UniProtKB/TrEMBL annotation:
Record-given protein name: DNA repair protein RadC
Organism in which the protein naturally occurs: Petrotoga olearia DSM 13574
Family, similarity comment: Belongs to the UPF0758 family.
GO biological-process terms attached to the record: proteolysis
Gene Ontology MF terms: metal ion binding; metallopeptidase activity
InterPro entries, sorted: MPN (IPR037518), RadC_JAB (IPR025657), RuvA_2-like (IPR010994), UPF0758 (IPR001405), UPF0758_CS (IPR020891), UPF0758_N (IPR046778)
């Protein structure tokens, strides 16, 4: 038990930044099982999943099956990872309050990397390209998102948006647009021209890159 207290003592004395990833996980899990202490558990998790960013992608069910974790430990770990992910996203959105490039649009929606189903999201903008709000429009399946132009423009009108950027993810990790992506982009652009609410771009988010219709190319994320 004394070993299990060491990360807590270290955090109290030197701050959380002094702890290794496995020590932070050990604090979250709190305890292991007989003949397999919490440090063994946390080290095994990182050995298998390599990094915390990879661990974010793993389902609650899969984590709970790991030796020494169980359902409660998995819930605690997923909750802690989600807090970190949301904090990171909030900091990005504070930084990019005005969207002037596809990369900035990517950054305010980069949490979509972790989604397991295709989701359509819209960044609604005012006349100076400041963000009014960011809304999820629809959730689809593993390989197809379902969104009708009327759903997007209904939200745009409600928020008095002058323009918007459409964003959706490809859970496969490949942001290359499908024929469906190209067709729906054309329809939405045409609808926007009629309504006077422009779609400035359509961003497809992949694992480590994104595709921008305004640039007509993919860009890697450093």
């Amino acid at each position: 038990m004394e070993d299990e207290l060491k990360p807590r003592e270290k955090l109290e004395k030197y701050g959380p930044q002094s702890l290794k990833d496995e020590e932070l996980i050990a604090i979250i899990l709190r305890h292991g099982i007989k003949n397999y202490n919490v440090f063994d558990v946390s080290e095994q998790i990182l050995k298998k999943y390599k990094t915390l960013s990879h661990l974010v992608d793993i389902s609650l069910e899969e984590i709970s099956k790991e030796k020494g974790i169980g359902k409660v430990g998995a819930i605690n770990l997923k909750a802690a990872l989600e807090i970190g992910k949301r904090y990171h996203l909030q900091k990005l959105r504070q930084k990019y309050q005005k969207i002037t490039s596809p990369k900035e649009a990517y950054h305010v929606c980069e949490d979509m990397i972790y989604l397991t189903k295709e989701t359509v999201r819209a960044i609604f903008l005012d006349s100076k390209l400041h963000i009014i709000t960011i809304k999820d429009i629809s959730n689809g399946t593993v390989n197809m998102s379902i969104a009708h132009p009327r759903d997007i423009f209904k939200e745009a009108i409600m928020y008095n948006a002058v323009s918007f950027i459409l964003v959706h993810n490809h859970p496969s990790g490949d942001p290359t647009p499908s024929m469906h992506d190209m067709d729906i982009t054309k329809k939405i652009m045409e609808s926007g021209e009629i309504l006077g609410i422009n779609m400035n771009d359509h961003i497809i988010i992949g694992k480590d890159s994104f595709f921008s219709f305004s640039l007509d190319r993919s860009e890697k994320i450093d």
